[in-house]
């Protein structure tokens, strides 16, 4: 591949976990780049809720050299080592407690404020972040023409922003979140923070990572340190009062309605909530390919509409960034066009997302089966926890998935393939 005469221009759209991790990975992996992150927000701040840091998230934070930026006193880990517990939301009965046997201590599940993760990532970002820049449109070529870039093997792209700015880039990384191409999912998450002392003062309330289940809705409580407790509730609200993310819920009845059949303990927890934000969940299309035109890659939520399922979206975003940067570097160091690196990225990540969609499809089938059984509250909760949340649900591998191992295997296979192709062309 020819050395570029000028740096390779890369635009990353979105400064969420995906965009920030992509910048960190790419700035290290490719020596000749000019990377810029464009973010639509006017101020860089995370929504004030919590986020799981799963074992696969920790592995990626190590790979990004970001773990060192997280002060252990700013994250919550359970005292008895459980990762998560599931309780009946009506009776409080503990139905299952998932442990973490075999997980190295530094990779044990943790819960943190989203801003803790954002600050840790930002500390390693060395490229400019241009705020107040909402990408509106992408066209090929600088002036309507579309010459091929010898490094990527594809035409350059013109980006048009809402503030009137236009720029031309060689590679575009779409890290603009789930609403990249989307529709409503039919469920709404309500999220808020409660002073920890209020909840820990309730008799019988566990200082744990707890899902309180109803037949299809749930309430989640978890300590976030900083004197705060997280409350997240998931309910089937197909037409929320607004589709805006993070809007304050003004009518308390909207928020309280879905949990009326839950028991007194959960009701008391909910009664302490003051400021609740609404997050209607979005479900984009399940894309067959997450790269296009030889110069565009989607990463993070933009590449997969999982709507927060598995509580590991940040890990998926980091895994995408890891593979994307390695795949581009692989192509560059083998004298291939970068479009071949993008294809390899797609060949590693698309099958992973297909496997995750398969799990969600099984869950949907389980919900449909439950509908036909006509179960009461407690039986339905047992059914749901057994089939979708406990050990038997069979998705523990998601957190054990080691993308670094997968990458080593794939790159070994690709290099072997290149060697055989070269040998076949020898005179
Ligand atoms: C209820 C719920 C609970 C969750 N819990 C967890 C959890 O415990 N652990 C976990 O790992 N994940 C969790 N997730 C998922 C996690 O929040 C996402 O997977 C993660 O934020 C994805 O990061 P991202 O960077 O891809 O997208 P986002 O975080 O959505 O960031 C996208 C960024 O792009 C910007 N943007 C969008 N459009 C444009 C545009 N046109 N131009 C410029 N900028 C643009 C946005 O402003 C935003 O800053 C949860 C999600 C939900 C809904």
UniProtKB/TrEMBL annotation:
Alphabetically ordered keywords of this record: FAD, Flavoprotein, Monooxygenase, Oxidoreductase
Cofactor(s) this protein requires: FAD
Keyword Oxidoreductase in record: yes
Database matches in InterPro entries: FAD-bd (IPR002938), FAD-dep_Monooxygenase_BioMet (IPR050493), FAD/NAD-bd_sf (IPR036188)
Sequence ranges assigned to domain FAD-binding in this UniProt record: 10-356
Gene Ontology terms, MF aspect: FAD binding; monooxygenase activity
Keyword flag Nucleotidyltransferase: no
Family assignment from sequence similarity: Belongs to the paxM FAD-dependent monooxygenase family.
Protein name from the UniProt record: FAD-binding domain-containing protein
């Amino acid at each position: 591949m020819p050395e570029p005469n000028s740096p390779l221009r890369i635009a990353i759209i979105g400064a969420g976990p995906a965009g920030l991790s992509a910048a960190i990975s790419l700035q290290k992996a490719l020596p000749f780049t000019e990377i810029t992150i464009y973010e639509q927000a006017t101020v860089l701040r995370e929504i004030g809720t919590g986020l799981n840091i799963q074992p696969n998230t920790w592995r990626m934070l190590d790979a990004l050299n970001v773990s060192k930026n997280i002060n252990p006193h700013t994250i919550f880990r359970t005292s008895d080592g459980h990762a998560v517990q599931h309780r009946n939301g009506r009776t409080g009965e503990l139905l299952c407690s998932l442990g973490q046997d075999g997980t190295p201590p530094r990779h044990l599940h943790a819960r943190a404020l989203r801003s803790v993760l954002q600050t840790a990532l930002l500390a390693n970002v060395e490229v400019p972040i241009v705020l107040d820049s909402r990408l509106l449109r992408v066209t090929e070529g600088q002036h309507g023409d579309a010459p091929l870039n010898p490094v990527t093997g594809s035409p350059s792209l013109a980006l048009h922003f809402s503030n009137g700015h236009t720029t031309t880039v060689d590679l575009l990384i779409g890290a603009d979140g789930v609403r990249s191409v989307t529709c409503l999912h039919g469920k709404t998450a309500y999220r808020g923070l409660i002073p920890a002392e209020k909840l820990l003062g309730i008799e019988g309330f566990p200082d744990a990572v707890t899902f309180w289940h109803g037949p299809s809705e749930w309430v989640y409580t978890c300590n976030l340190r900083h004197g705060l407790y997280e409350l997240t509730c998931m309910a089937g609200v197909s037409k929320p009062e607004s589709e805006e993310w993070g809007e304050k819920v003004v009518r308390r009845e909207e928020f309280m309605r879905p949990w009326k059949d839950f028991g007194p303990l959960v009701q008391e927890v909910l009664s302490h909530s003051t400021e609740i934000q609404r997050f209607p969940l979005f479900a984009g299309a399940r894309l067959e390919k997450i790269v296009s035109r030889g110069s565009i890659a989607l990463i993070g939520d933009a590449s997969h509409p999982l709507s927060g399922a598995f509580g590991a979206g940040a890990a998926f975003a980091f895994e995408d960034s890891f593979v994307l940067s390695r795949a581009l570097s692989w192509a560059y160091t083998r004298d291939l066009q970068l479009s071949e690196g993008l294809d390899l990225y797609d060949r590693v990540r698309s099958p992973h997302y297909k496997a995750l969609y398969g799990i969600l499809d099984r869950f949907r089938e389980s919900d449909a089966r439950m509908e036909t059984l006509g179960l009461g509250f407690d039986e339905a909760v047992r059914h749901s926890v057994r089939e979708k949340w406990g050990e038997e649900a069979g998705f523990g591998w998601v957190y054990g998935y080691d993308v670094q191992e997968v990458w080593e295997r794939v790159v070994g296979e690709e290099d072997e393939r290149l060697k055989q192709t070269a040998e076949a062309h020898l005179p």
